[in-house]
Specification:
heterodimer; A: 647 residues; eight-stranded mixed sheet; 24 strands; B: 473 residues; three-stranded antiparallel sheet; two-stranded antiparallel ribbon; 16 helices; binds iron/sulfur cluster
Chain lengths: 647, 473
Amino acid sequence: MSHATVLEVDGLQTEFAGQGYVVNGVSFTIARGESLVLLGESGSGKSTIALSIMRLIAEPAGRIRGGRVVFEGTDLLRIEEQRMRRIRGRGIAMVFQEPQSALNPVLTIGTQLGECLPAKGRRTRGLGLLDAVGLPDPTWAYGAYPHQLSGGMRQRVVIAMAIAAEPGLLIADEPTSALDVTIQAQILELIKAEQRRRDMAVLFVTHDLGVAHLMADEVAVLYRGTVVEQASRALLFANPQHPYTRDLFAAIPSREKRGASLAAPDRVYDIQETGCCYAGRCREVQSQCRVCEPVLREGSAGVRVRCVIVDTPRAPSPDGVREPDTGGDPAGGDLLEAEGLCVNFTAADRIFGQKRQIRVVNEVSLRIGRGRTLALVGESGSGKTTLGKAITRLLPLAGGRLRFEGEDMTTVRGEDLRRWRRDIQMIFQDPYASLDPRMTVGEIVAEGLRAQRIMPAASRFSRVQELLRQVGIAGGSIDRYPHQFSGGQRQRIAIARALAVQPKLIICDEPTSALDVSVQAQILNLLRDLQREAGLSYLFITHNLALVEYLAHDVVILYAGRIIERGSVDQILTNPRHPYTVSLFAAVPRFDHPPLVNVMVKGEVPAELVMEGCPFHPRCGRALPHCRYERPLLRGFEDGHEAACHL
Amino acid sequence: MSVPMVLPFKLVMLDTDFLLYALFAVLIVLITRVRRNASLRQTWRRVFERPGAMAAVVILAVYAAIALLDSVHFRTALYAPDGAVTGYSPQILSVLDILCAPLRLHTEHTYSAPFAEHALVRETVMRPGGRVQRIFPRLIWGGRGLAGPFARTRDILQRSGRGLVEALLVWLMLLCGVWLVREGGRDPRLAWRRLWRGDSKLPWRTFWLTTGLVLLIGTVVANLAVEYHVLGTDQVGIDVLYKSLKSIRTGVVIGTVATLVALPFAIVLGIAAGYFGGFVDDAIQYLYTTLSSIPGVLLIAAAVLSLDLYLGQHAREFQSVLERADLRLLFLCLILGITSWTTLCRLLRGETLKLREAEFVQAAVALGESRARILRRHILPNVMHIVLITLVLDFSGLVLSEAVLTYVGVGVDPSTYSWGNMINGARLELAREPVVWWNLGAAFIFMFMLVLAANLFADAVRDAFDPRFHRSS
Ligand code: SF4
Ligand code: SF4
């Protein structure tokens, strides 16, 4: 390589008490101006590598056991803490996932930024940096406190602090995972721009293939603490070699895989004692794999793969069987009809306790057909979860009508409401919060059976067993507690709980956003099978457009509590009308095909609701003069395709 | 003619006795339930994995045992010359009183220092020759059996030695017993080595060391106390060790019963305020804000003083001083409970507010669960850790507040043995020459041990039960 090596990690090993080696012999180098992406799912050790380089592993639970971390000629594992402290921030800077915790809430942005700068000309330089990272009003932000900034702006500040001392290496640990896609696109662009400008080396940690594709020069794929494949971006994405990488690609939902099940491991094995770490899940496992551990071998064109079979041409990963799309038939009739739904939140004034009503969902109308999936797409703050809860009558409606199978459900109460609850169930986003930690799995799944008095207590046990089997949980788990299960398993249990009452409609509130890609694939397959078998309808709330492409029949796009576009999935994907929809699609980092149009949406969702005109006008790149005061109404284009825009 | 069977005693149940028994019964029920529930057992294991908590539990158990022994009250029978029972003594005694009979009965005339043979205060005596002399008189009981003036040190050493041997014997017997039962007597050397090295999940080494230490102190003091006033005597000649031991029950009653009084208020109101919100919430918040802005001491003083008035007017209705004092103790617990539920209530309200929005509660609502069941099955079990943590944390605070309140004069009855009363008396004793420090010192040590043990235990409980401390598990 022509450039100077900035960081060389060689055989790094980090151990955590009770978990064994979380990082087990990882080696890579990063040259000046280059970026290396560490790609891996949870438990792959990717963040631990980042922390090990910074020597920020929390001892005594964790300990670096071996290897070298050579930064600009110094082995960081051999120097004393005092010297290390000088290297942190000045030599190597780090950006974390959660910008909130990286900033001190009681100090102003200026004070915190100033700590990274020399005393002379501190303010001017600070303002310059804030301007460079794209804060709209640097002077205001300089004197502001962290809580006054939005998540995206805070991450910009953190980046400003990181680059303040002109570090040679920037480590970014999932810096955009907590942000919306449109904001993510801006932040990623910012990091790339700063890298180019300062000729920094960047170590980027992510689980997202799209982000990896956008950010990487070189990608190292991690599995269980070892690098299983390392290659340049182009090669890795064109021709993944290692079985794990290939499975990862196959597990990503996309438009092409519609109607087919996703490749997903049946089970996740525990750590293998000997042999290849992937042998438990590998499709191409051979007898020798279980005996001796394969080494990272040089394949063709600089691709390095840790697998016994390299460079043998292979068939593409087996795609699941493609079944006819049953829900595609719109003639099934409507299961649920919502008309002009409004939901208010009551915000109490802090000082005088005056109650103020804030409308978070505004005049939303939608229909969900029998056996169909309606995707509800929106970023945080769009009111999509609120809408989901309002449809299940978990939140009070401030207006509008709700009809289920033709019957008005807007005002049912008491016993009728309880009976109706059987038909409509909800699966929540966070499988760690949606199961009562003090109840056993059996009690959790049986809860609906009991509440709805579906069957006598005596026969419940066998029904619970059956439900658990249906979602792929071993029947012996019935007496265990949720904390003994992984995230994916918990989500299955939550699905079993919903299925117990045999609902007709399930509201899925981002059920896979907290899960790894391969686990997500399992859950999506399960939901898909259930739909085919039982004719279930889904309202699928998500911000992940790949999911929409894969499973939705109809799409509704929500912005600031209003529907701004709706239509069938084909209409929306091939011919988005609303500028927001267009920019949303453009913001998603993709590796399979380039974005349709390259527009980046400016700014962020304003903190105060836009009361007049088009809610999107402050950020819209194509705003017309009258967009400011005239609210656009939903207007039809082709058959059933509607958008709320003056264009 | 058949003589009716007469027991040589008649049981007397004081109100606080009853409450202590009830508490103890509840504790046993809870322990058996915890043992059956795998996840709770796991959490409690984490408490006991701490050596500090293990030692604290041993100490707490000793205190609890003494308090319980002191809560079995009875009157002894009075006999006619022919042996028939004619009635029962007006004096109410407890099992502890019987066990500590020498301590209770060996009263002197006035102050004497620990291990003294002579009184602390000079007395004027008339010598046979009509000579008036001021001397330090010999004590009635302290050092009575000593042969000569220089025999004391030897005697103390001898008795301590005997205590040491006894302690060692009992300790080894216990150890062997446990070893026989748990391991069937296998591999004595291995078992010993494991114990010695602390090679076990739970800190059994700490357990046995603490037990040994407690035994040692117990036997040595028991051996010495027959002959000496180990902690001296007070103004009216009562053994200070006896007073300190009797005070344990008062401390334990205050610490437990007061929290128990507070619990129902705090749980019901806190959860109701958090879950129902709206008007209910406003009303409850109003109530506890008002209550907690009145200084607790004022409220307690007012209540106790009016109780005093009542007791004074109805003095006849009580058969004994002890029963009267007991009512006052109970009342103090009640009023302490009523003034202390607000903190827990506020905590529970906040937690319930959070839980109400928790997804598992929302899921239960979506399944059509009734409110009552959601409160019972989802909310209550998920706030119990807060209740437990507050309970153990408050215990030591209440024990200390007894001392403070009694010192101020609105605490327990002056006739009740309590650390607060001992400290109260020390006000004048410290101004004497020579200083009488042992009353204060004894109260301090006994209270300190209890509060320290309670705090160590509380810390371990908090760390084990507070979800913030073990997110990863
Ligand atoms: S070494 Fe064997 S088990 Fe491991 S990835 Fe390669 S083929 Fe699969
Ligand atoms: S109505 Fe105007 S501001 Fe709103 S999206 Fe359309 S062009 Fe943009």
